[in-house]
Amino acid sequence: MRGGERTCDPVLVPTGGQRVDSEKLVEGGNAKTECDPFDGLGYFDLAAGKWVDVEEEGEEDEGERVVLPGRLRRPESNCASKQPLHYLSLLKDPTTSMSSLSFLRNRFILFVGDSQDRNAIDRVCALAHPSLNPQLSVYQWNGTRYPDSVVKSTNWGTTPDLPAHAHPHKCTLKALNATFINYFHLGVRMTPYYDKSNFLGPNETAHPVDRIKTVLIPFLHAINITSSPDLILTHSLLWDLRSVPLKRISEYLPLYSKNLINNLFIPLAETFPQSHFAWRTVPLSSPTHPHFPQSAIRLMNTVAKGTAKSVGMNVVDWESPLVGRHDLLWRDGFHQNEEGLNVLVVLVLHSLNRLSLGY
To answer: Which of 145, 178, 180, 246 gets the most CB atoms within 10 Å of its CB?
Structure first.
């Protein structure tokens, strides 16, 4: 959200582990709506490893804690809201109700994150009905577009040795003049994990702030985009988790919160002062994943949500609807399969619809 505007967004929580349609995970068929606890006044308790919600300043317990900037008070308004529309159904076949997708018309959505966001953009184009005239493009950072034959023949999720995996993907729904673009960054630490990886091209920086100025902005200009995004969906967690020894995750949490603000939120806000912002959470990995343990993802999701809320950002909670849904994981144990990506697509479309309604 812009400035200090805040609303009490619903958190959608599965009521059971039964197999259901991925859209219904978000749309309420097997979910209940609760008020997001991170909308309240509170702090992150480092020793307990959780967010502590308090009503008044004097009720806080003493102890080791991380006080995130900008204490939040729960809004007076009711937290309940209408369930999302059947967005996937509209995207797959809008012919009977094209006006229902009017909230996408002339919209520019920028995903600032990682391969999950790239895959979600590809999924939007894969789901879109031909009447929306979807076009998926993959670019080099200098604005050179890969041939359609390469895009159509390459499974971007299975051959990560290709440098283009970290290059921007763009899905355009031409009938609505709606554009989705992803910007790939490597975490918010000053020394990212893949500082010299094959994800980077020659002379391409991994520095989180410099990438915005020297990689993202020149790319947008190279493909003739000069307007600010209507919505920036931002995220940074897995790259940061990979760059820190697992036994030191708890020690890193205060710095993680600070890095999110200084190396991601502030540079993006200064670059795109007219845009709305939202934070995306990370679904849990498989229970036995060696690099991304569930406990660490939960901790970092908690800190990141609190940090995002503290600066007035809404949260697109992709974690909650997928709790226990390991069947929606890809074979690597942390990327989502098509059904899992469908959930993120629904959440993003719902955010855009709320934005069009003035929330």
So the answer is: 180
Quick one: tokens of 355? 């934005």
| pTM confidence score | 0.76
Q: At residue 16, what is the residue type?
A: G
Please report the DSSP string for 102-129 in residue order: GGGTT-EEEEEE-HHHHHHHHHHHHHS-
- State pLDDT tens for residues 36-84: 433 444 444 434 444 455 544 444 444 443 333 333 333 333 333 333 4
For residue 355, the model assigns a pLDDT of 81
Of 288, 196, 280, nearest in space to 234 by CA: 280
Rounded Cα distance between 336 and 193, Å, is: 22
What is the spatial distance between Cα 180 and Cα 125, in angstroms, rounded to a whole number?
Answer: 9
CB distance 256 to 240 below 8 Å: yes
Task: Name, in order, each residue with C-beta under 8 angstroms of 121's C-beta and a sequence gap of 6 or more.
Answer: 111, 136, 169, 170, 171, 180, 181, 182
> CA-to-CA distance for 160 and 156, rounded, in angstroms?
7
How far is 302 from 49, CA to CA, in rounded Å?
9
* Overall size of the chain counted in residues: 359
149, with CB counted inside 10 A (0-12, 13-18, 19+), is exposed
